Amino acid sequence: MAILDLSLQLKVSVPCLLLGAILFGVSFSVDKWIKWSTASSSGFAGLWKACFQQSDVTYCYTWNSDTMDTFKLSRDWIHKSQALQCLGLVVMLGALGSTIVFIFIKLRLAVIAAVVTSFGSAAFMVIGCAVFASDVNDDAVYGTIADFDWAFGFNIVAAIFTTAAGVGLLLQTILHRTTTNTPT
């Protein structure tokens, strides 16, 4: 199958989905979701660890670390956000797989699965960000308020691209109803 043979909806949806997956993968893996600074220290954190900088030394701890208990941080919100983002990742992989199957085999069921998983992945990403954002400053470290960093923004942009891909794939199912449930 040549790229020129793809419909306009797929020519737009596939790059949106790929870009969303790349941005989401970067956001998911780095520790730059929030940052904070006080007169004596600063820090940054992501889904998986938090780092504190004092003088020229940086201390990093995973959110599940017993050391984090010394900071008296409630970690329920981070665990909820981690779970939602993990679900978003798994569903995103389903969206990518379904889209690939549809491109090469033209199964109508595959494009329907791609639509559902695209929207589902975006929903998990947005809800995970909402949980993270709503509770991150409840446990303000050293009495300071955290600012959102670039990886948090990547996650939001990834959800937007994934939603755009879902819309394009939905248009594909509506405008091209001639596709069958059997491989061609």
UniProtKB/TrEMBL annotation:
<keyword id="KW-1133">Transmembrane helix</keyword>
<keyword id="KW-0812">Transmembrane</keyword>
<feature type="transmembrane region" description="Helical">
    <location>
        <begin position="12"/>
        <end position="30"/>
    </location>
</feature>
<protein>
    <recommendedName>
        <fullName>Claudin</fullName>
    </recommendedName>
</protein>
<feature type="transmembrane region" description="Helical">
    <location>
        <begin position="82"/>
        <end position="104"/>
    </location>
</feature>
<feature type="transmembrane region" description="Helical">
    <location>
        <begin position="111"/>
        <end position="133"/>
    </location>
</feature>
<keyword id="KW-0472">Membrane</keyword>
<feature type="transmembrane region" description="Helical">
    <location>
        <begin position="153"/>
        <end position="171"/>
    </location>
</feature>
